[in-house]
Design brief:
binds adenosine-5'-triphosphate, about 45% helix, seven-stranded parallel β-sheet, binds magnesium ion, Rossmann fold, alpha/beta, 8 helices
């Protein structure tokens, strides 16, 4: 089973958006998927509740207690904001691949700078048991702040995979319990193109 964690100490950076879109993508290609929601806000669980039963099923798991059953291909873990210390270690121990989304905002970049510094020193990352990668979220490449974020992420000496576009499609998906790979291809073509490097990384040996 692949275990993929979406993590950032900062709230609102896109953890749930990426976790639910990954879960939906793998389900849409016929994989058995568990979506583990570690956040007491339960945004991933409420996304699952909005999901039509006609769509490929995804197993929802709340919190740390429940075990993921055998035969699951992908375990996607949606982390809460504000994790540090022992709680951060506990969550990192659950994951082979870790995606860290960062928003193009000075406050988010400052917080991310500290968070990335800490996570790079974490024993699990140092020992290469968890592989980490960065993603710019809600990017608009005609803005100066996006290019500042791009420079910042590119200078971190860990993989910087892509920018996820700031797009209404993600809002619509959040509402309907869907992912961009389950919406009309024409409407989501560009968003998929930008999202794709995340899937490529997860498919590659670089992420395990
Ligand atoms: N690329 C995007 N384009 C448009 N809207 C987005 C995008 N990414 C996230 N959002 C929206 O921004 C808000 C915050 O995103 P999300 O819930 O994924 O962040 P989070 O890191 O899980 O937040 P929290 O720390 O509160 O759990 C949501 O309303 C979401 O729909
Ligand atoms: Mg969330």
């Amino acid at each position: 089973m692949r275990s993929i964690l979406v993590l950032n100490s900062k709230g609102g950076s896109g953890k749930t958006t990426i976790a639910t879109n990954l879960a939906s993508f793998y389900a849409s290609i016929g994989k058995s998927v568990a979506l583990v929601d570690l956040d007491t806000q339960e945004s991933s669980i409420s996304w699952l509740r909005a999901r039509s039963s006609a769509k490929p099923p995804i197993i929802g798991i709340k919190g740390y207690g429940e075990r993921v059953k055998r035969g699951v291909d992908y375990k996607i873990i949606d982390a809460p904001a504000g994790l540090n210390g022992a709680a951060l270690t506990k969550v990192l121990n659950m994951a082979e691949s870790v995606i860290i989304p960062v928003l193009p905002s000075p406050i988010d970049m400052r917080a991310a700078s500290e968070f990335i510094k800490n996570i790079k020193k974490h024993s699990r990352v140092v020992k290469k048991k968890s592989k980490i990668a960065l993603v710019a979220n809600r990017g608009r490449d005609y803005t100066n702040i996006y290019w500042e974020l791009d420079d910042f992420l590119a200078s971190q000496k860990i993989p910087f995979l892509t920018m996820i576009r700031d797009s209404q499609n993600f809002i619509r998906c959040a509402e309907k319990g869907l992912g961009i790979y389950e919406m009309g291809p024409a409407m989501t073509e560009v968003d998929r193109e930008y999202f794709e490097p995340i899937i490529d990384w997860l498919n590659s040996k670089r992420s395990r």
